[in-house]
Each structure stands twice: as C-alpha cells, then as structure tokens.
Design brief:
alpha/beta; D-Maltodextrin-Binding Protein, domain 2; 2 domains; 30% strand; binds phosphoribosyl ATP; binds magnesium ion
Length: 213
C-alpha cells in the first residue's frame, strides 16, 4: 500500500482533479468527509488528509510515502529528508513582504509578523537586516494596522486580502506552487511503484496547462 498525504482546502481542491486525471480518483471528497484516510480508485494507494503544515512531517517520517505540499510550507520545513520530484503547478501564489501603503522609511530593526518564521529570518538575514520576527498563526494582514508589526511576510494570490487591509507588496520573496514530495527511504524500497506514480502524476500536471486557474 502506498500512502499519499495532502491537505484539505486549496491543495486538495486543485490536486484532486489532477490526481483523477492521473487515474487516482478519491473515493470521497475530503471536504465532505470526516474520514482522514481515504481510499482511491487504485487498490494500492490511499490518501491521508492532513493540515498543510503537517504534510512534510508525515512524509519525512515515512508515515506517508508521498505528499503534496505548497513550496511555502516546504521552505519552512527543516532538514532535507524529502525528494521533491515534481512542481505540480497548482495552488500558485507568491510569498511576499508587504507593508502599509503609507509606511514610513524602513525601521532599523523592523518588526515582521508571519507564520513563515524560518523563511522570513533567512530573507532578512540575506539582506543583512536584523528583524524582530513575530510568529502568528493567521490573520497576519491585520498586524501592521494595530501596530503589532511594521510589515508582514505572507502568501498572496490575487492580493485582494492585502489591499483590503491597506497593505502593498514591497518585495516578492518566492513564487509558490504545490510540489509532490517523496520519502527518501520509500523511493529506494518501492522504487518501481513510486516512480510509476510520479510519472503518471507528472504527465497529468503537464497536461494541466501549467496549472493556470
Ligand atoms: O487555512 P489553514 O490555516 O487551514 O491552512 P493553510 O492556510 O496552510 O491552508 P490553505 O488551504 O489555506 O493553503 C494551502 C496552500 O495553498 C498554502 O500552503 C499555499 O502554498 C497555497 N496557496 C495558494 C495559498 C494561497 N494561494 C492564498 N491565497 N495559501 C493561502 N492563501 C491566503 C492568503 O494568505 C490570503 O490570506 O488566502 C488569502 C486570500 O489571498 P488573496 O491574495 O487572493 O486575497
Ligand atoms: Mg489558509
């Protein structure tokens, strides 16, 4: 049995049709089901439905053989325990540094609200700026307005959420899309089965027109 980890919401919404084109149909819609382990149209493939941030952890520890996770989540995940054979081109967005439209010149030690703590730290260190990173779990966009932070590091798609909260993009840190990740040991042990699956998913992703929405 091969186990594929993915998350509800955007990733599943966009991955499920792609997997179906690859011949891996989900037996149930994770959005409507309380079941966290879902059968597929392939007898030897099942799907785990996880929080997005947990997908790399399950795959790294071998609790899942494969997974689908946003590059933003993978950038935060420490260590190199995963193969990343495919950019699926879905769930695209941008990881950005954003600040209030009327921001004053950058503070010497900017306060940065983000759930992407490691990535934000690397980004500011790379610029030689000593930032104070404030970890949040959501609603980052409100932090500057209530003077919790000077700026935020977050993902944006249309930018509507930033705009609605008076923020503008100062810099794009990374282009983000969902990636297929594979456990390194599983890749060795079940090489034939996993590479066949990776190839099928890759073909379906390529036929997806690069994941345009
Ligand atoms: O929401 P939850 O806390 O349960 O978990 P999650 O946010 O990790 O999951 P989910 O489903 O929201 O996102 C899963 C993955 O989708 C992320 O890891 C990204 O790789 C990818 N993705 C693509 C996005 C977006 N687009 C996106 N727009 N993730 C989040 N957003 C947020 C954005 O930060 C903003 O708050 O959606 C909101 C709307 O964005 P705008 O710019 O279109 O207004
Ligand atoms: Mg979300």
């Amino acid at each position: 049995m091969l186990t594929l980890a993915l998350s509800k919401g955007r990733i599943c919404d966009e991955a499920a049709p792609l997997l179906a084109r690859a011949g891996i149909g989900l037996a149930e819609d994770p959005a409507d089901s309380r079941r966290l382990c879902i059968a597929t149209s392939l007898d030897d493939v099942r799907v785990l439905v996880l929080r997005a941030q947990d997908v790399p952890t399950f795959v790294e520890h071998g609790a899942a053989d494969l997974g689908i996770a946003g590059k933003d989540v993978l950038l935060e995940h420490p260590g190199g325990g995963l193969y990343e054979p495919l950019d699926l081109g879905i769930a695209r967005c941008r990881l950005v540094l954003a600040e209030p439209r009327d921001a004053k010149p950058a503070a010497p030690r900017p306060r940065v609200a983000t759930k992407y703590v490691a990535t934000a730290r690397r980004y500011f260190a790379g610029k030689g700026v000593q930032a104070e990173i404030i970890r949040l779990y959501g609603s980052m966009e409100i932090a500057p307005a209530v003077d919790l932070a000077d700026c935020i590091v977050d993902v944006a798609d249309t930018g509507a959420t930033l705009a609605a909260n008076g923020l503008v993009v100062r810099e794009e840190i990374a282009a983000i899309s969902a990636r297929l990740v594979v456990n390194k040991a599983a890749m060795k042990l079940s090489h034939g089965r996993i590479s066949a699956l990776v190839e099928r998913i890759g073909r379906a992703a390529a036929g997806d027109g690069g994941g345009c929405r």
